[in-house]
Design a protein that fits this description.
Layout (H helix, E strand, L loop, with lengths): L8 H20 L9 H9 L5 H8 L3 H13 L3 E5 L7 E5 L1 H5 L1 H15 L5 H24 L1
Antiparallel strand pairs: 1-2
Length: 147
């Protein structure tokens, strides 16, 4: 079997991800949210005050990448980083009022992008697609953890 972008799972998922990211960026950038900050914001909106280590684990990125992202987010007035009062070795990331105020507009933008991508799919197809993607993620994560 020869390689083809038309039948490559990785290529097709990457292509979809780039298209979704481009659409999302066009919607959130005018609000002052950089695309690279969006994943961290999602986790902080879920649970403010995470440590940098917790964010690294949740995002699945390297510490230097997160540090650079947080520096930009700090510059943009979205987060603050402070030493934990109980453990000075730990740095907690906290949302600013500006970032908290952007939550709904960002969620709305993400939901609009998702709805656009899934237009023409019925509910059963949407559920099946999400279930299959979760299986792919588990398979890849299992491969990464086992070898």
């Amino acid at each position: 079997m020869e390689f083809s972008v038309d039948t490559s799972l990785g290529y097709q998922i990457n292509h979809v991800a780039r298209l979704l990211a481009r659409d999302l960026e066009a919607r959130i950038k005018p609000e002052g949210i950089a695309l690279g900050a969006f994943p961290a914001l999602l986790h902080l909106w879920e649970k403010d005050g995470l440590t940098q280590k917790e964010l690294v684990a949740r995002l699945g990125i390297e510490q230097p990448t997160l540090a650079a992202t947080l520096a930009r987010m700090e510059r943009d007035g979205l987060v603050t980083r402070r030493r934990d009062e109980g453990d000075g070795r730990v740095q907690r990331v906290r949302l600013t009022p500006k970032a908290r105020a952007l939550r709904e507009v960002a969620y709305d933008a993400a939901m609009d992008v998702n709805a656009k991508a899934l237009q023409g799919f019925d509910e059963a197809e949407r559920e099946l697609l999400m279930a299959l993607l979760r299986r792919v993620i588990l398979s890849v994560e299992g491969t990464e953890n086992n070898g």
